[in-house]
Design goal:
The protein has about 250 residues and is an alpha/beta fold. It is built from eight helices and ten strands.
Length: about 250
Protein backbone atom coordinates (compact mmCIF):
# COMPACT_ATOMS: atom_id res chain seq x y z
CA UNK A 1 0.00 0.00 0.00
CA UNK A 2 1.35 3.42 -0.98
CA UNK A 3 2.03 5.46 2.15
CA UNK A 4 2.68 8.68 0.21
CA UNK A 5 -0.31 11.03 0.39
CA UNK A 6 1.33 13.96 -1.44
CA UNK A 7 3.82 13.67 -4.29
CA UNK A 8 5.01 16.86 -5.97
CA UNK A 9 7.60 17.07 -8.74
CA UNK A 10 8.99 20.17 -10.42
CA UNK A 11 6.16 22.37 -9.20
CA UNK A 12 6.20 25.93 -10.54
CA UNK A 13 3.92 28.90 -10.04
CA UNK A 14 4.30 32.18 -11.89
CA UNK A 15 2.31 35.36 -11.41
CA UNK A 16 2.20 38.12 -14.01
CA UNK A 17 2.11 41.63 -12.59
CA UNK A 18 1.98 43.98 -15.54
CA UNK A 19 5.06 43.20 -17.61
CA UNK A 20 6.81 41.55 -14.67
CA UNK A 21 6.73 37.80 -14.02
CA UNK A 22 6.99 36.77 -10.39
CA UNK A 23 8.29 33.23 -9.87
CA UNK A 24 6.54 32.27 -6.64
CA UNK A 25 7.56 28.61 -6.84
CA UNK A 26 10.62 27.44 -8.76
CA UNK A 27 10.61 23.69 -9.34
CA UNK A 28 9.61 22.28 -5.95
CA UNK A 29 9.90 18.54 -5.22
CA UNK A 30 8.09 17.30 -2.12
CA UNK A 31 6.74 14.06 -0.67
CA UNK A 32 4.56 13.80 2.42
CA UNK A 33 3.60 10.50 4.00
CA UNK A 34 0.24 9.61 5.43
CA UNK A 35 0.18 10.50 9.14
CA UNK A 36 2.90 13.15 9.03
CA UNK A 37 2.70 16.45 10.90
CA UNK A 38 4.54 19.04 8.81
CA UNK A 39 5.25 22.72 9.40
CA UNK A 40 5.98 24.91 6.37
CA UNK A 41 8.06 27.97 7.19
CA UNK A 42 9.69 30.91 5.47
CA UNK A 43 9.83 34.68 5.40
CA UNK A 44 7.20 36.75 3.62
CA UNK A 45 7.46 36.15 -0.13
CA UNK A 46 9.29 32.84 0.24
CA UNK A 47 6.52 30.84 -1.44
CA UNK A 48 5.06 29.09 1.59
CA UNK A 49 1.54 30.54 1.23
CA UNK A 50 1.52 29.83 -2.51
CA UNK A 51 2.54 26.27 -1.71
CA UNK A 52 -0.32 25.90 0.78
CA UNK A 53 -2.85 27.27 -1.73
CA UNK A 54 -1.74 24.74 -4.33
CA UNK A 55 -1.74 21.89 -1.81
CA UNK A 56 -5.29 22.90 -0.92
CA UNK A 57 -6.38 23.01 -4.58
CA UNK A 58 -7.23 26.70 -4.18
CA UNK A 59 -4.76 27.57 -6.94
CA UNK A 60 -3.33 25.77 -9.96
CA UNK A 61 0.41 25.43 -10.60
CA UNK A 62 1.96 26.85 -13.74
CA UNK A 63 3.87 23.62 -14.25
CA UNK A 64 4.93 20.40 -12.60
CA UNK A 65 3.05 17.48 -11.06
CA UNK A 66 0.84 17.27 -7.99
CA UNK A 67 -0.55 13.92 -6.86
CA UNK A 68 -2.93 13.95 -3.88
CA UNK A 69 -4.00 10.57 -2.51
CA UNK A 70 -3.12 9.00 -5.90
CA UNK A 71 -5.17 11.59 -7.82
CA UNK A 72 -3.46 13.74 -10.47
CA UNK A 73 -4.73 17.22 -9.61
CA UNK A 74 -3.73 18.63 -13.01
CA UNK A 75 -6.28 16.40 -14.77
CA UNK A 76 -9.29 17.71 -12.83
CA UNK A 77 -11.69 20.34 -14.10
CA UNK A 78 -13.06 23.11 -11.89
CA UNK A 79 -16.08 21.14 -10.61
CA UNK A 80 -14.08 17.98 -9.91
CA UNK A 81 -11.47 20.04 -8.07
CA UNK A 82 -14.16 21.63 -5.90
CA UNK A 83 -15.63 18.24 -5.04
CA UNK A 84 -12.20 16.83 -4.19
CA UNK A 85 -11.38 19.88 -2.07
CA UNK A 86 -14.57 19.48 -0.05
CA UNK A 87 -14.20 15.75 0.59
CA UNK A 88 -10.44 15.17 0.75
CA UNK A 89 -9.23 18.38 2.43
CA UNK A 90 -9.96 20.22 5.63
CA UNK A 91 -8.96 23.88 6.09
CA UNK A 92 -8.17 25.90 9.19
CA UNK A 93 -7.48 29.62 8.76
CA UNK A 94 -5.89 32.25 10.98
CA UNK A 95 -9.09 34.32 10.97
CA UNK A 96 -11.38 31.28 11.59
CA UNK A 97 -13.69 32.15 8.62
CA UNK A 98 -16.88 31.32 10.52
CA UNK A 99 -20.28 32.58 9.38
CA UNK A 100 -21.17 35.24 11.98
CA UNK A 101 -24.94 34.70 12.14
CA UNK A 102 -24.69 30.92 12.29
CA UNK A 103 -24.21 28.71 15.35
CA UNK A 104 -21.08 26.65 15.89
CA UNK A 105 -23.04 23.52 15.01
CA UNK A 106 -24.39 25.01 11.78
CA UNK A 107 -20.91 26.26 10.81
CA UNK A 108 -19.51 22.75 11.22
CA UNK A 109 -22.44 21.19 9.39
CA UNK A 110 -22.05 23.42 6.33
CA UNK A 111 -19.41 21.36 4.39
CA UNK A 112 -21.66 18.30 4.63
CA UNK A 113 -24.29 19.96 2.42
CA UNK A 114 -21.81 19.69 -0.47
CA UNK A 115 -20.96 16.05 0.19
CA UNK A 116 -23.37 13.89 -1.76
CA UNK A 117 -22.28 10.78 0.14
CA UNK A 118 -23.66 12.07 3.44
CA UNK A 119 -27.40 11.67 3.92
CA UNK A 120 -29.34 14.62 5.31
CA UNK A 121 -30.34 12.71 8.45
CA UNK A 122 -26.66 12.06 9.28
CA UNK A 123 -25.36 15.63 8.90
CA UNK A 124 -26.30 16.86 12.35
CA UNK A 125 -24.89 13.77 14.04
CA UNK A 126 -21.54 14.12 12.26
CA UNK A 127 -21.32 17.81 13.13
CA UNK A 128 -22.10 17.11 16.78
CA UNK A 129 -19.43 14.38 16.87
CA UNK A 130 -16.86 16.75 15.36
CA UNK A 131 -17.57 19.45 17.96
CA UNK A 132 -17.37 16.88 20.76
CA UNK A 133 -14.00 15.76 19.39
CA UNK A 134 -12.59 19.29 19.85
CA UNK A 135 -14.08 19.74 23.31
CA UNK A 136 -17.02 22.01 22.44
CA UNK A 137 -20.01 19.86 23.35
CA UNK A 138 -21.31 22.65 25.58
CA UNK A 139 -20.83 25.44 23.03
CA UNK A 140 -22.36 24.04 19.86
CA UNK A 141 -25.43 26.30 19.91
CA UNK A 142 -23.42 29.50 20.50
CA UNK A 143 -22.83 32.13 17.85
CA UNK A 144 -19.21 32.99 16.96
CA UNK A 145 -19.42 36.32 18.86
CA UNK A 146 -20.31 34.32 21.98
CA UNK A 147 -17.10 32.29 21.72
CA UNK A 148 -13.52 33.12 22.62
CA UNK A 149 -10.84 33.17 19.93
CA UNK A 150 -9.64 29.72 20.94
CA UNK A 151 -13.18 28.35 20.87
CA UNK A 152 -13.76 29.82 17.41
CA UNK A 153 -10.60 28.15 16.19
CA UNK A 154 -11.81 24.85 17.66
CA UNK A 155 -15.04 25.27 15.70
CA UNK A 156 -12.93 25.82 12.57
CA UNK A 157 -10.97 22.65 13.33
CA UNK A 158 -14.21 20.70 13.87
CA UNK A 159 -15.44 21.99 10.51
CA UNK A 160 -12.20 20.80 8.89
CA UNK A 161 -12.74 17.31 10.35
CA UNK A 162 -16.42 16.80 9.61
CA UNK A 163 -15.96 15.27 6.14
CA UNK A 164 -13.21 12.95 7.42
CA UNK A 165 -10.57 14.41 5.07
CA UNK A 166 -7.28 12.71 4.20
CA UNK A 167 -5.40 15.96 4.88
CA UNK A 168 -5.82 18.99 7.15
CA UNK A 169 -4.24 22.26 6.00
CA UNK A 170 -3.82 25.12 8.45
CA UNK A 171 -2.66 28.66 7.65
CA UNK A 172 -1.12 30.37 10.71
CA UNK A 173 -3.73 28.67 12.96
CA UNK A 174 -2.38 30.28 16.13
CA UNK A 175 -1.62 33.71 14.66
CA UNK A 176 -4.54 35.51 16.36
CA UNK A 177 -4.34 33.69 19.69
CA UNK A 178 -2.63 34.36 23.01
CA UNK A 179 0.18 32.10 24.19
CA UNK A 180 -1.84 29.69 26.30
CA UNK A 181 -4.61 29.34 23.73
CA UNK A 182 -2.01 28.76 21.01
CA UNK A 183 -0.63 25.83 22.98
CA UNK A 184 -4.14 24.48 23.52
CA UNK A 185 -4.77 24.52 19.76
CA UNK A 186 -1.41 22.83 19.11
CA UNK A 187 -2.29 20.22 21.74
CA UNK A 188 -5.46 19.50 19.77
CA UNK A 189 -3.53 19.23 16.49
CA UNK A 190 -0.99 16.90 18.08
CA UNK A 191 -3.78 14.72 19.46
CA UNK A 192 -5.42 14.54 16.03
CA UNK A 193 -2.07 13.64 14.48
CA UNK A 194 -1.50 10.87 17.04
CA UNK A 195 -4.87 9.47 15.95
CA UNK A 196 -3.60 9.28 12.37
CA UNK A 197 -4.51 12.63 10.81
CA UNK A 198 -2.08 14.08 8.29
CA UNK A 199 -1.58 17.76 9.04
CA UNK A 200 0.32 20.50 7.21
CA UNK A 201 0.44 23.99 8.64
CA UNK A 202 2.12 27.24 7.70
CA UNK A 203 3.72 29.24 10.48
CA UNK A 204 6.34 31.97 10.87
CA UNK A 205 6.78 31.16 14.56
CA UNK A 206 9.83 29.00 15.30
CA UNK A 207 8.46 27.77 18.63
CA UNK A 208 5.17 26.69 17.01
CA UNK A 209 7.06 24.80 14.30
CA UNK A 210 8.64 22.60 16.98
CA UNK A 211 5.29 20.90 17.63
CA UNK A 212 5.48 19.28 14.18
CA UNK A 213 7.45 16.15 13.28
CA UNK A 214 9.08 17.74 10.22
CA UNK A 215 9.88 21.31 9.18
CA UNK A 216 10.12 22.47 5.56
CA UNK A 217 11.68 25.89 5.07
CA UNK A 218 11.04 27.86 1.89
CA UNK A 219 13.18 30.64 0.47
CA UNK A 220 12.86 32.40 -2.90
CA UNK A 221 10.30 29.90 -4.17
CA UNK A 222 12.35 26.82 -3.36
CA UNK A 223 12.76 24.45 -0.45
CA UNK A 224 15.86 25.75 1.26
CA UNK A 225 16.02 22.84 3.68
CA UNK A 226 13.88 20.34 5.53
CA UNK A 227 14.53 18.47 8.71
CA UNK A 228 13.02 16.07 11.20
CA UNK A 229 12.24 17.95 14.42
CA UNK A 230 14.65 16.95 17.17
CA UNK A 231 13.65 17.67 20.77
CA UNK A 232 10.05 18.00 19.64
CA UNK A 233 7.77 20.03 21.89
CA UNK A 234 4.54 18.58 23.27
CA UNK A 235 1.87 21.13 24.01
CA UNK A 236 0.24 19.03 26.73
CA UNK A 237 3.48 19.12 28.74
CA UNK A 238 3.96 22.87 28.28
CA UNK A 239 0.38 23.61 29.36
CA UNK A 240 1.05 21.92 32.70
CA UNK A 241 3.69 24.55 33.44
CA UNK A 242 1.56 27.60 32.59
CA UNK A 243 -0.60 29.56 35.06
CA UNK A 244 -4.34 29.10 34.68
CA UNK A 245 -5.33 32.74 35.16
CA UNK A 246 -6.50 35.04 32.38
CA UNK A 247 -8.05 32.29 30.28
CA UNK A 248 -10.36 33.85 27.74
CA UNK A 249 -13.86 32.55 28.34
CA UNK A 250 -17.48 33.43 27.56
CA UNK A 251 -20.48 32.32 29.58
CA UNK A 252 -23.11 33.62 27.15
Amino acid sequence: MNNIIIEIKGLRKDYHVGEVTVHALRGVDLSIKNGEFVAIMGVSGSGKSTMLNILGCLDKPTGGEYMLDDIDINTLNKDDTARLRNVKLGFVFQSYNLLPRTTALENVELPLFYNGKIKAKNRREKAVNALEAVGLADRMHHMPNQLSGGQQQRVAIARSLVNDPVLILADEPTGNLDTRTSFEIMELFQDLNLKGRTIIYVTHETDISRFATRNIIFRDGKIQRENVVNNRLFASEILKTLPVENIEEFDA
